[in-house]
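User: My instructor asked us to take a sequence, write out its structure as tokens, and then describe one feature of it. I'm not sure where to start. Here is the sequence I was given:
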Amino acid sequence: MKQILLAFGMSALAIFQTHAAVVDLTGNLSTRTLTNENCYYLKGCVVVPNGVVLTIDPGVEIRCESGASLTVAQGGQLFSNGTSSLPVVFTSDKAVNMRAPGDWVGIAINGYAKNNVLSGGGGTKAIARCSSFTGGGMNDNDNSGVLKFTRIEFAGGEPSGYTFTDALVLNAVGDATDIHDVQISQSAGNGIYLSGGKVDLKNIYTLDAHKSGLFLEDGYTGQMQTLLEQRKSLSAHHSSGAYGIRIENNLSANNNTPLTRPIISNATFMGPVFCGAANPISTNFKSGIFIDRNGGADIYNTLVAGYREYGLFINDAASAQRTAASTLNLSYSSFTNNLLGDYAHGVFTWSSFGCDDDMAKWIGDDPTGTASCVQVDNQFGVFSPNYNSSFCADYCGDNFTPNFVLNTPVPLALQNPDYSALSGFFTSSTYRGSIQTSSTFSGWIAVCPQKEDYCSLALLRSQVELPQLMFAPNPASTFTHVQFEAEQTGKADLTILDKVTGKILSSNTVNITNKGIQQIPLTLKGLGESVYTVRVVMKDKIIYGQLVVK
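Assistant: Let's start with the prediction itself. The structure tokens for your sequence are:
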């Protein structure tokens, strides 16, 4: 059984779903659909090859063994079709309270869109799993499938020989691919790594990624809206640095095109200081927005708060030059409570490379800036974003119900967003940041995945060899007998469940006094015409059957 939180700010509603058996996912897959009647076990290096389509129905749970990974090769497609009430979940195979970042590797999708491995596009970038997979080409409209209402938990493991072991790797993925409403929790690496491509992302929540919430490079030029990057755990850091978002052009060839230039609106980058973490905290915690190696972006209507270093840090002169060329823009955004300051740059002379005389004039903190590349309506200093207090609660505390909303009235510092420079992909709102008065992140996320009660691999495997329940009569109308073989005496719980939702419709306990074949009377009063799941539980043994009521 599993429990899914349906709504924030409301009483939790429980859905109990039964599973028939464990189905192992191994090696190269053929075209298939995963249904929520089963619990799936990802083992080893699992591949969706060229020409193969993997479809995942709403509510499917996939447990992943240590070192396991799912890789979609170029020409393959993944359709992870979760819903707001029945998300798809990829998670650790460990038990409750035993899960940890890096328990498995993660998901990698390889497309045919452009990157800048070769200037102008057409090059490929390799990632290693059980073998090498490449992404890249010239088709920015490539379609690798759908990823929606999907959670990826405790990924980022780094087995020997694997590369780019982030929770979700998008390698040259095209903009016909649909990615929205995705949560990445407790990744030992980056939450999402984008190498080139043009895929758009909307409604993305990364919780306690140990490297960057998002890492963009190699000519990524997609659009992003409603990003919540949150770092609550003081253990969520890495020696390579922990950033909200890291944007670079190319590690070895800074000037290669297409230049990395995402368009981002309504992001909230929330560092550990936001909820009161005080020094000393690890020096691995860095800045909210980090730009390096000729990186560029257009960032609007965003909140950056609570980082140990800076809200925005531009590390190199090449990136600063892009402020002068207006290919690095940041306007209508708010910065607060970043310990070393809201913005800074690396060891170079700003006036020789960047927009206007210094960084303060470019970003608008000094109102004397007059250059045409100067940014507009950014806000700095100490203020309260007026987010609901549950942001800083103990997410794994007893009876915790998140209420991720922006309290009203909207504070002045988050007012006056602007969408005039943005395309139809972006939805206008009346505030900056990713949080609404009725939150986007409702119903499908899990703020404490450590305690989620997912399908039990061991228990389900123990069911496989058990006989199924029989009924006499079946179909039945008002009364039937449940028939099964009992291997032990004692109490047996007999339950009728809705076959679609798993909701318990009736339950009673009977006493088994003798081993062997049992015939237990079962009244069907109040049940409409339908197919129902019937379950008998005796100690650690579970037997299922399907009953037709006419």
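For the description part of your assignment, you could build on this observation: Residues 1-17 have pLDDT under 50 and may be disordered. Try explaining in your own words what that tells you about the chain.
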